[in-house]
From TrEMBL:
<keyword id="KW-0456">Lyase</keyword>
<comment type="similarity">
    <text>Belongs to the RlpA family.</text>
</comment>
<dbReference type="InterPro" id="IPR036908">
    <property type="entry name" value="RlpA-like_sf"/>
</dbReference>
<keyword id="KW-0732">Signal</keyword>
<dbReference type="InterPro" id="IPR034718">
    <property type="entry name" value="RlpA"/>
</dbReference>
<dbReference type="GO" id="GO:0008932">
    <property type="term" value="F:lytic endotransglycosylase activity"/>
</dbReference>
<dbReference type="GO" id="GO:0000270">
    <property type="term" value="P:peptidoglycan metabolic process"/>
</dbReference>
<dbReference type="GO" id="GO:0071555">
    <property type="term" value="P:cell wall organization"/>
</dbReference>
<dbReference type="Pfam" id="PF03330">
    <property type="entry name" value="DPBB_1"/>
</dbReference>
<feature type="signal peptide">
    <location>
        <begin position="1"/>
        <end position="20"/>
    </location>
</feature>
<dbReference type="InterPro" id="IPR009009">
    <property type="entry name" value="RlpA-like_DPBB"/>
</dbReference>
<keyword id="KW-0961">Cell wall biogenesis/degradation</keyword>
<feature type="domain" description="RlpA-like protein double-psi beta-barrel">
    <location>
        <begin position="46"/>
        <end position="133"/>
    </location>
</feature>
<comment type="function">
    <text>Lytic transglycosylase with a strong preference for naked glycan strands that lack stem peptides.</text>
</comment>
<protein>
    <recommendedName>
        <fullName>Probable endolytic peptidoglycan transglycosylase RlpA</fullName>
        <ecNumber>4.2.2.-</ecNumber>
    </recommendedName>
</protein>
<dbReference type="InterPro" id="IPR012997">
    <property type="entry name" value="RplA"/>
</dbReference>
Length: 141
């Protein structure tokens, strides 16, 4: 009987270590998945305007020809080629546009939208609007 108790204790001790190692491995696996799925979404608030008619047909910063019917924008704080969702804070309309141009460095506005985007957001008559800009990670049109 005395020989059985130490053997039984050893078996119990080693089985706890094996269980603890499996638990740690499982947690590491879950954390790796969480890191991949928790990208921060960049959100900015500011004032939006839209391009004047005189810019129609001119070259943008990334060598595209500006077309007021396309959903594009100029922005100084986000990289060229970034897709953004712009929400008009007055009427909560949204539009998705691609940044393909820069604004004058003296301009304090957050984004300058194409006429089509401004029309959909409902501020062509006002000229400017307070907006929320969200960067769309991994967006493909």
């Amino acid at each position: 009987m005395r020989k059985i108790i130490p053997v039984f204790l050893l078996i119990a001790f080693f089985s706890q270590n094996l269980y603890a190692q499996k638990t740690v491995r499982r947690k590491k696996h879950i954390n790796a998945k969480e890191k991949k799925s928790t990208k921060k979404t960049i959100v900015k608030y500011g004032v939006a305007s839209f391009y004047a008619k005189k810019f129609e047909g001119r070259s943008t910063r990334n060598d595209e020809i500006y077309n007021s019917a396309k959903y594009t924008a100029a922005c100084n704080v986000l990289p060229l080629g970034t897709w953004i969702k712009v929400t008009n804070l007055r009427n909560h309309r949204t539009v998705i546009v691609r940044i393909n141009d820069r604004m004058n460095h003296k301009n304090k506005r957050l984004v300058d939208l194409s006429r089509a985007a401004a029309r959909d957001l409902g501020f062509l008559g006002r000229g400017v609007a307070k907006v929320k800009v969200e960067v769309l990670n991994n967006f493909r049109p």
